[in-house]
Specification:
Heme Oxygenase, Chain A; 13 helices; globular; single chain; 0% strand; mainly alpha
Length: 248
């Protein structure tokens, strides 16, 4: 039976809440109890690799998508990521490079970094999903990642979204190093932001019971990959923080 739009929206948020929020992964343990610049460097390096690849997955999906509104959303998203974000003066990858530099990494170190093996495995999953799955399932895998920034859902679990600058403002970084998080908050967290718009797009285009089931299955799969990725990243960030504190 086809779920109503409201019921399907609740199911989408339920999957993300169950996998991502109900039992937070180690990256939140790092933020809550082990935050240091050295640990944040681990995050900055891995997330820079992710940021460099994310727009390409939308590019893969656009060529297979027959719906203008969905293509417009993905193309606009890619444009904001890589060409012009009205809230900042650099692209999202370059703003992550600035974040790494603010933490003490060199520009060369960030730009030349290829990713930990878990990051490379996660990127391989999303690249494969965006190339091989039907467009709607591919969007659930890639666009669904932005649902982690859904403010309504994060508030339900009493936390800030992962891409909130609140986690890193405690490090006292200069404003130029925080532009990535400022732009993320502006683009993703509002009612019309990416964290909400991606849900609406899935609800609008999954119009059969089979499509809804496949969207939920793929969304859960992608959330599990993301959770594993950030859990491994969080554990490495905690280790880096503990090692740094032991040296002081």
């Amino acid at each position: 039976m086809v779920a109503t739009a409201a019921a399907f929206r609740a199911q989408i948020l339920g999957v993300v809440g169950d996998v991502w929020w109900a039992s937070p992964c180690a990256i939140f343990e790092f933020f809550d109890n082990h935050l240091t610049r050295e640990g944040a460097q681990v995050f900055a390096l891995e997330h820079s690799v992710f940021a460099a690849n994310f727009p390409r997955w939308f590019g893969n999906i656009v060529g297979n998508c027959p719906h203008l509104d969905a293509r417009q959303y993905m193309i606009e998203n890619m444009y904001v990521e890589e060409v012009h974000d009205p809230t900042v003066t650099v692209g999202h990858y370059d703003s992550m490079v600035l974040f790494g530099q603010g933490l003490g990494l060199s520009e060369e170190a960030v730009r030349s970094y290829g990713g930990h093996v878990v990051t490379r495995m996660a990127i391989a999953y999303w690249d494969n999903a965006s190339r091989t799955k039907p467009w709607l399932e591919a969007f659930a895998a890639v666009g669904g990642l932005e649902i982690k920034a859904n403010k309504e859902l994060a508030d339900r679990y009493g936390r800030s979204p992962l891409n909130s600058g609140s986690y890193f403002r405690r490090l006292g970084l200069p404003d130029w190093a925080m532009v990535h998080w400022q732009s993320a908050e502006a683009a993703d967290h509002g009612e019309a932001g990416h964290g909400d718009a991606s849900v609406d797009l899935l609800v609008r285009h999954a119009t059969t019971a089979d499509e809804q089931a496949r969207v939920l299955q793929t969304l859960r799969e992608s959330m599990e990959v993301s959770r594993y990725h950030f859990d491994a990243m969080g554990r490495r960030a905690i280790e880096a923080s503990q090692a740094a504190l032991a040296r002081r």
